[in-house]
Amino acid sequence: MAWDDLISKVIWLLLQPSNLFLILFLIGLILVWKNRRRSGLSLLTACAIFYGLVMFGPLTSWLMVPLEKRFSSYTNYVGDAPYSGIIVLAGAERLTLSTRHKQVTLSGAAERLIEAAKLARQFPDLPIIYSGGGQIKNMLSESKIARKYFIEAGIDPSRIRFEDKSYNTHTNALETKKYIQHYETGGRETGKWLLVTSAFHMPRTVGAYRNADINIQPYPVDYRTHLKTSLIKNPNAGQRLYQLDFALHEWIGLLAYYISGRNEELFPAPDD
After folding, report:
1. Residue 126: other Cβ atoms inside 10 A
2. Cβ neighbours of residue 252 closer than 8 Å, sequence gap 6 or more
3. How far apart are alpha carbons 97 and 211 in whole angstroms?
4. Which of 8, 44, 185, 227 has the fewest CB atoms within 10 Å around its CB?
5. Domains of the chain (ranges plus CATH)?
């Protein structure tokens, strides 16, 4: 595991809302038990307010909607053909369950593969680059699960280049660049590639691929919201806390990529 990936995973372990809530809650209890009631109760109150904002929806909505809305105008849009190919990012594959049950098992991001297969049938002459290097010892890798999915979906695997060295969005772009050079040569690649990933992940992905000098057209999938914010929704703390983890991860990722120079824009936007 690369050092930057290790550091980011450790930091995220502490900042992930579902983890941070429990950590702060336990600290609040400890303070109360240690007779620091005022500080402890203040922290517990803050936890209760946070949980309420998550449970009834506004906090998750405020963070997720801007991410998904940023490139929503490209949803299902393929009007800028011809294209050089299709890029699809990993992240939908469930490694442990796919290995144990010997069948393709996907997460809530399954639309990444579903829509990529649809595009492959819509553009039967285009090559496909699948980018993702997730691997656990003695488990099927992301690319092996994706290969099995595409074969079962009727897509000829000879059309697909499986990139399995990347470990984050930045390296997705860098490793994809090497595969694109297999299809296009000479300076900047001018052919446009359809880029398939989750809508909330698209801003950071677009920034990374632009920074790698790859000409892409976003094709967002896997929407988690109705693209509208609201103050109150039906209470569902579990689902919204799960979504909040994804949303905050992307905002922190956008900030980190901008500060580190991996993205030239803080919040990448569609081209004019």
Report:
1. 18
2. 12, 15
3. 35
4. 185
5. 8-69+235-260 (no CATH), 73-221 (3.40.50.620)
What residue type is assigned to position 140 of the chain? Answer: L
Lookup: tokens for 106: 């996907």
d(CA 267, CA 203): 6
β-bridge pairing 216-221 and 160-163: unpaired
Burial of 216 (0-12, 13-18, 19+ CB in 10 A): buried
3-class SS at 56? coil
The one-letter amino acid at 106:
L
Strand partners, 194: 86, 217
Q: How confident is the model at residue 8, as a pLDDT?
A: 77
Task: Report whether 183 contacts 85 (CB < 8 A).
Answer: yes
User: Between the CA of residue 57 and those of 222, 223, 233, 238, 272, what are the distances in Å?
Assistant: 19, 16, 6, 11, 33
Q: With contact defined as beta carbons under 8 Å apart, do 231 and 58 qualify?
A: yes
Report which DSSP code applies to 58: H
- The angle that helices 58-69 and 37-55 make with each other, rounded to 10 degrees, is 50
Structure tokens at 135: 């691997």
How far is the C-alpha of 62 from the C-alpha of 230, rounded, in Å? Answer: 8
pLDDT, tens digit (0-9, with 9 covering 90-100), for 121-165: 999 999 999 999 777 888 999 999 999 999 999 999 999 999 999
Q: Which amino acid is at 158?
A: S
Q: 0.85 exceeded by the pTM? A: yes
Helix (H) or strand (E) holding 220: strand 216-221
Q: What is the pLDDT of residues 86-106, one digit of tens each?
A: 999 999 999 999 999 999 999
271 pLDDT tier (thresholds 50, 70, 90): confident
What secondary structure letter does DSSP report for 221? E
